[in-house]
Amino acid sequence: xxxxxxxxxxxxxxxxxxxxxxxxxxxxxxxxxxxxxxxxxxxxxxxxxxxxxxxxxxxxxxxxxxxxxxxxxxxxxxxxxxxxxxxxxxxxxxxxxxxxxxxxxxxxxxxxxxxxxxxxxxxxxxxxxxxxxxxxxxxxxxxxxxxxxxxxxxxxxx
Length: 158
Known about the structure:
By secondary structure, the chain is an all-alpha fold. About 80% of the residues lie in helices and about 0% in strands.
């Protein structure tokens, strides 16, 4: 039963990826290169309907992937208590990293003109800065983990 479900999910994902890719390729060949960003729904753009369909397919694929991830995560966490503790610890560290980054990120680094132009508030700008700082911290932590792991393996072999 599990093998059939896995194969079905793989085939559905493959079919959705092919359809989405076909729409993306069709749109890229027919798009007006001068007005790609601002003219998606212009009268002269005959492929704006394909863009809408491709967008809906991509959103559906993301929703299916997130739902599957949550379902499998909850199932695995229920079956494995040790993994559940590690996952909660990791999530807690991620939240703490974001909160610290939020308080560290400056609120006055963007002028009021830019905020109004992009329809942002100071809080949104601060949250964006916190997200950027969080990504930097996580990237540095990942590099450190890779270096530590490779060094530990090299010392164990000797």
